[in-house]
Amino acid sequence: MERADTLFTPVDLGKLSLKNRIAMAPMTRTFSPGNVPDEAVVSYYRRRAEGGVGLIITEGTFVNHVAASGYPNVPAFYGAEALAGWKKVVEAVHAAGGKIAPQLWHVGAIRRPGVNPGGDTPGHSPSGMAIPGKVTGHAMTQEDIDNVVAAFAQAAADAKDIGFDAIELHGAHGYLIDQFFWDGTNQRQDGYGGDLAQRSRFALEIIRAVRAAVGEDFPIIFRYSQWKQQDYSARLCDTPEALQAFLTPLAEAGVDIFHCSTRRFWEPEFEGSDLNLAGWTRKLTGKPAITVGSVGLNADFLPEDGTADFKGAEPASLDRLIERADRNEFDLVAVGRALIANPDWANQVAAGQTGGLVAYEKKMLHQLR
């Protein structure tokens, strides 16, 4: 492996200064009983901060809306008990020398009735659809939209109040914000439907509300993807020009950093260029970008059939990643499963001790490590 010095130099992203370019990717683990992050969650994030991660992005944590949660034992981001738990996480990460942002989340149509909180509430989505053409829940009214926008804004304000260093909005992977982007799930006939510019209205309202809630100096990260859980071939934008038209309003609304989710960081996004999605995002918007996708592992994080099977993987060379970092293709790299298997992954890579890294196994995601 080439020297990884580029990954371990301090980086100033305007409103966010970090000790290195390593971020922890958000990974849902369903380890918060009663939707409250407990001491095990505190320890989990502390260990990654002690292990050298510059910025931790938490697992998805759902906002205060009756249909926001889609899985049992996922942490909430509202209520005195859950926020007190998150405050302990923040304090532990800071004490270990790291910085941290919560990923604020609403699952949308992916929710199934019976998950608490929410009980029998059906999934909410732009048109009541999860997979294109399949009605699975409740088509959102204007009141629903307004309530969700307000919930994201309140969660962001609470994150700032309890000491987080930034927030991330989850606009990827076929969850609610992304369901508004994608024409396969957004067939509305009002101002929130139509072409991609109109389908972006919901996200823009959330970003503007969050910006108003946290002020000008608090960093907002926005995670987006071309692919969806339901369709790996789905693409919001087929050309750089279309991508620029999509991203520019998001940046103007208040996004400081784009988290560009791909399955494989090394794959070019458009023909005629080696740039990946993060590289194009950085070039087109002038905003810092986070790359992600099977970093440090020899297998994709999901199989081709789209099932949520976080299969195992062996450690792999970082040479291609370092080459791209040296070209300033991205500003941060988010590491996922490798950090589940190796809490001190960043320190080991920085010290050139990659021979000691262990393989990731599926069972690790739901173990206390």
Automatic annotation (TrEMBL):
Q: Where is the NADH:flavin oxidoreductase/NADH oxidase N-terminal domain?
A: 7-294
Q: Which domain of life is it from?
A: Bacteria
Instruction: Fetch the CDD domains from UniProt.
Output: OYE_like_5_FMN
- Which Pfam families does the record match to this protein? Oxidored_FMN
InterPro entries linked: Aldolase_TIM, OxRdtase_FMN_N, Oye-like
What name has this protein been given in UniProt?
Answer: NADH:flavin oxidoreductase
What is the native source organism of this protein?
Pseudophaeobacter arcticus
From which lineage does this chain's organism come? Bacteria, Pseudomonadati, Pseudomonadota, Alphaproteobacteria, Rhodobacterales
